[in-house]
Here is the input.
Amino acid sequence: MGAGVGERRASVPPGSGWPGDPAVATTPVATDAAAVRELAQVSTVDELDARVSVCRACPRLVAWREEVALTRRAAFAAEPYWGRPAPGFGPADARIAVLGLAPAAHGANRTGRVFTGDRSGDWLYAAMYRAGLASQPTSVHAGDGLVLHDVRVIASVRCAPPANKPTPVERDTCRPWLVKELQLLRPTLRVIVVLGAFGWQSLWPALAAASLGAVPTPRPIFAHGAEEQVNGLTVLGCYHVSQQNTFTGKLTEPMLDAVFARARIVTESGTESSRGGVGR
Ligand code: SF4
Here is the structure.
C-alpha cells in the first residue's frame, strides 16, 4: 500500500496503489494559484479528484502536510501517511454534499480520505449511517469498504493546515477546486450541509463564482440549524463535528441526526421549499 515504517516518505506517490488514489504519475500538478484555476477546468469529478490530490499550490500547507507525514504521531508511527490533499469522497451524482473545513493532520492527511481515521469522522460517518447515507458506521482507512449513498463529502481547503487554520490566501487559492466541484455536482445536488462557520463563510463566494444563482446579500450568518435557499439548493448550517464541539456537548448526536433528517426530507420532497428546519 505504500512505504512502511522503515522507509518514510513525505507523501504517497500518485498511482502507487494506495486505496482510492484517484491520480496517476502523469496527473498534472498545480504549483501556484494560477495553475489551480487552470487545472480546475475539468469535465469530470474523477479528473478533478485526481488533480486535487496532487496539488502543491500552497507552500506552507505542502510543507506542513509532508512534515506531519514524515514525523507521524506516535500511535501511527508504523503506518505510512498519505501526505497529500484529500479529494472529495462519495458519488458524483449525490443529492447531498457535506462541506467541511479541511483535512486533519492525523486523519485524512494520514489515511487519504476525508474525515477518515479521526474522532470527527467517527461522528460524521456514524450519523450518516444512521441516516441511511453510509454503508457502515465507521471510517477507519481508505480501504475499509465504506460506501456513501447519495452524499459526497468535500472540504473548503484540501490540505491539512497547522492548528486547523488555513490563511485567507490559502482558502482563496483552493477555491477553484471547490467551485468546479459544486458545478460538477450541481445537476443532482439539492442540499449542502455545511459543518462550521469557516465552511459556511467559504461557501458563498464559491457559489457565486460557480454561477449557481444569486447569493444572498448580506451573506447569511452561520448558526446550527440555519437554512438558506439559493436557486434550488438548500444550505443547512451545522456545528462542526470537531471534538471541541462533540466532547463539550455543543453538538450532540440528536442534533446531528436532525440535520441529516432535514437533508433527507428536502431531497425526498424534491423541492427546497418544504421548509421545516431542524431547530437551533
Ligand atoms: Fe492545493 Fe488546496 Fe492544498 Fe492549497 S490547500 S495546496 S490549493 S489542494
The first helix runs from residue 33 to 39.
